[in-house]
Amino acid sequence: MTKKHKHLGFGVDIGGSGIKGAPVDLNKGKLAAERVRIPTPQPSTPEAVAEAVGQVLDHFDWDDRFGCTFPAVVQHGIVQTAANVDTSWIGVDAHELLRSKTGRPALVINDADAAGAAEVRFGAAKDHKGVVLVTTLGTGIGSALVVDGVLVPNTELGHLEIDSCDAESRAADSAREREGLSWEEWAQRLTRYYSHVEALLWPDLIVVGGGVSKKAEKWLPAVQIRTPIVPATLRNEAGIIGAALLAARS
Ligand code: BGC
């Protein structure tokens, strides 16, 4: 399968527990086949993860350029941080690693940036002008800042210091689970977080993604901020779709 077929691209989403991938219809912003998921190798070393990415591509016989998310700062292909992944990734040239291990050229980008690009092109912020902030609430907090459709990469707003804490350690979905917070208690933490963010950036729209956005009706109405805030619509496919989209554009 190659991107010469119809309007296809290919996206891979590297997460802490699973590596997921699928061909993507770039006109519709939808997966063109059911995605494949394989467990993230433990330890999640660069070599082991790159091999797993190769297996996902092999499954679809994808032999062309692809996009791939990574849950850390990725600056021109170089992994710069490792908040929730194996620290051996720091300093790795992910473009070169994936190209040599899989035999296909890759664009590697931050996971939230990929999700943000997809939500702005096809999802909750489709065609929204102005300053759009897409955040993902999961193990960490990811952020994507998109201004008039142009992505400002690697904003890392999950690591703002708020009340002397790394924000994601108090407001990510993992903090809610770890501390057994009620939806109301967690919404208060999110109100604190998003109030701080909106006072710095004054976005026109905030989109909230991550698995917990599926249950947004339970907690989102209790987040009291001035900026319009809406759940993401592409759910757990946003990373795959955004990665494919950005790789096709680059
Ligand atoms: C990382 C970000 C990532 C986010 C979501 C944070 O801990 O620093 O790069 O986007 O988690 O995975």
Mind explaining what this structure looks like?
This is ROK family protein. It holds the Pfam family ROK. It comes from Pseudonocardia acidicola. This protein is of the alpha/beta class. It folds into two domains: 3-111 and 237-249, Nucleotidyltransferase, domain 5 (2-Layer Sandwich), CATH 3.30.420; 124-233, Nucleotidyltransferase, domain 5. It has helices at residues 46-59, 94-102, 111-122, 167-171, 173-179, 183-201, 238-249, and strands at residues 8-14, 18-25, 30-31, 36-39, 66-70, 74-75, 78-79, 106-110, 131-137, 141-147, 150-152, 161-162, 165-166, 205-209, 229-231. The strands form four sheets. Strands 1, 2, 3, 4, 5 and 8 form a six-stranded mixed beta sheet that branches. A five-stranded mixed beta sheet has the order 11-10-9-14-15. A two-stranded antiparallel sheet has the order 6-7. α1 crosses α2 (94-102) and α3 crosses α7 (238-249). The longest helix has 19 residues, at 183-201. The radius of gyration is 17 Å and the shape is globular. The site of beta-D-glucopyranose has 17 residues, from α3.
Question: Could you give a short description of this structure?
Answer:
This protein is 31% helix and 26% strand. The protein contains seven helices and 15 strands. The two termini are 20 Å apart.
Write out the distinct hetero groups bound to the structure.
beta-D-glucopyranose
Helix/strand order, N-terminal first? EEEEHEEEHEHEEEEEHHHEEH
Output the CATH class name of the largest domain.
Alpha Beta
The total number of structural domains is: 2
